[in-house]
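Lecture notes, structural biology module. Today: joint structure prediction for complexes of two components.
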Amino acid sequence: MTATPTSATEDLADVTRVLAGDVQAFEGIVRRWQGPLVNMAWRYCRDRGRAEEMAQEAFLRAWRGLAHWRRESSFSTWLFALAANVFRSELKRFPTVNVTMDEIAEPSAQATQHTALQEKSSHDEVRRAVLALPHRYREPVVLFYFHEMDLSAAALTMGLPEGTLKARLSRARALLRSRFPHLNQESSDPRIAALTTGKEA
Amino acid sequence: MNRTSKNNSEIDLNPIDHILVSEEKLIPSSGFLTSVMERVHEEARQPAPIRFPWKRAVPGILLAAGVFGMGAYELVRQAIPAAQALTLTPPHLSITVQRPLEQAAWVAFALAASLASWLLSRRLTGQSGLL
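The predicted structure, tokenised, for the full assembly:
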């Protein structure tokens, strides 16, 4: 989930116009980033209405703080980090109705899953299990997969060193694997394999 | 083992990775953009926040700091001779009172150690009740 060179140029142009007093120029920013921000918020709370509210709040904070973007990092990096802060504090104020990992039913074994419906339900259980992870492990998982497994992008969004994030991800993945043993297959992706050796910094 | 494409390269994912990375994209509702822009325009119409009147406040703050400083100085100045005049003699406790007090101190120490250990374990498990 990163900005393309075109969108980066457009972001910069829009931010410059907004800072010069053209309020309407902010619409371009919202138009480009509404999808990613709503999807990111959705991964934090898994409630569509709330995800849109949280994304809206993130855009408002971005509007207020646009002058604080120091242009050292890309606009998208700044926006995602700001949004993550907003979502974190919103969920602290009004937590989602959460279940513990033990309350989540383990999907039936793969051999018995024939229908698309069963598969969808099994996938939903795994995704709900992410929200049942302890807080320190939940957000790294949410952001790592939101950023399509780009560790450095997730670390930048969270404002954590990559090593720390890698260690937390490793622990989170171990917890998920222990909850869903039949889905436990080693990945040959080197980015994933590296996570299994992570130690918290 | 599922495969997904990223940066023009095929990547092998385990099923959990595949489930978490391949989530369906949510499309924001049709009114989302309008709603955000309405709020942005609302904020833009509001007058800029009034700055804190530092020029007017500084003399008051300095005056208050001076008064408190003087008060603290006087308090210390008068407390030193009074403290010197005090003679500190440990209260005499009979052996029948001393024993239970000693035991109570050990009980308090044990309770404090238990509390510290409970807090530490909660911190280590991320306060989730998972572990």
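Point to remember: Chain B touches chain A through 35 residues (CB under 8 Å).
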